[in-house]
Design goal:
This protein has 11 helices and 7 strands.
Length: about 270
């Protein structure tokens, strides 16, 4: 079984602590956009214009709660009940702290995207950001998310993933340096290209693209990102791998002022068919 869908691997290695997820989030601080990706998402959802007395929101695979942390000021203007779920306790623990620090009230529950029956037909808004690729059965996961929607015609499921082209050069360098560098990315089983084919079976949707170039100037942050896809898998690379990678990136920074990474991430705002 591929590691990105192996629940034991995900719980005991990739997400046993928040270290690797936080390394993957931190690389995005090198955006040139005025708003972060999570702030961009919040803007596109347009929560504050939802015409309802109180919104019931379910955040599936909430991770460290960074979406709500980065949008805490805007969220304070909402009237809502929020349930944060993740299958990894480490993520919920960090999410609790982040939301508490940001003044966001929520309930926190262990749940898996492939088993959401307890939430059936209850929610106006269901969020599932960059998580469907962890499901062993992608169609089951999508059906579970769909089933959580209330009977309100304005109920939505918000999904994000990444393109096959997303940050590809980071991986290409690794593969050139060492044949043992992982050739499968965490996202590869449910990229934008896969989602485009699968989602019409379940939803009508609006697709919005966030595309940009990260200009990384901190080698430590870049190398932590590279390591986040290697260390939890216990992959043995040649001893000089990280030094050689760092040297390649440093050369680009010295020549251009930054190490460039291409990003492409779609948001799917889904409604019942």
């Amino acid at each position: 079984m591929k590691k990105e869908i192996n629940k034991n691997y995900l719980k005991e290695q990739q997400y046993k602590t928040t270290k690797y997820l936080e390394a993957r989030i931190k690389i995005h601080t090198f955006t040139e956009n005025k708003k972060s990706f999570h702030q961009w998402l919040y803007e596109k959802y347009n929560f504050n214009n939802k015409l309802k007395d109180k919104l019931k929101i379910l955040d599936v695979a909430c991770g460290t709660g960074v979406f709500w942390k980065q949008n805490s000021e805007e969220a304070k203007n909402l009237n809502y009940d929020l349930i944060m779920t993740d299958f990894a306790e480490s993520m919920l623990d960090k999410s609790k702290k982040n939301l508490s620090d940001a003044g966001i009230e929520a309930k926190f529950e262990i749940a898996d995207v492939e088993n959401l029956s307890k939430y059936k037909s209850q929610f106006d808004i269901i969020l599932c950001h960059n998580a469907v690729y962890h499901a062993e059965d992608k169609k089951l996961a999508l059906q579970n998310l769909k089933d959580c929607m209330s009977d309100d015609k304005n109920s939505i499921v918000g999904l994000t993933t990444n393109s096959e082209k997303h940050m590809l050069n980071v991986y290409e360098i690794g593969r050139k340096l060492d044949k043992n560098f992982p050739t499968d990315r965490i996202i590869d089983s449910w990229t934008e290209e896969v989602a485009d084919k699968m989602l019409p079976e379940f939803f009508e949707y609006e697709k919005i693209i966030e595309e940009e170039k990260l200009k990384v100037t901190d080698l430590d942050i870049l190398m932590n990102y590279v390591a986040s896809g290697v260390e939890p898998r216990n992959i043995k690379l040649k001893e000089s791998f990280y030094d050689e990678y760092r040297e390649i990136a440093k050369k680009e920074i010295d020549e251009n002022g930054f190490f460039q990474i291409i990003k492409r991430s779609p948001l799917y705002i889904c409604k019942n068919k």
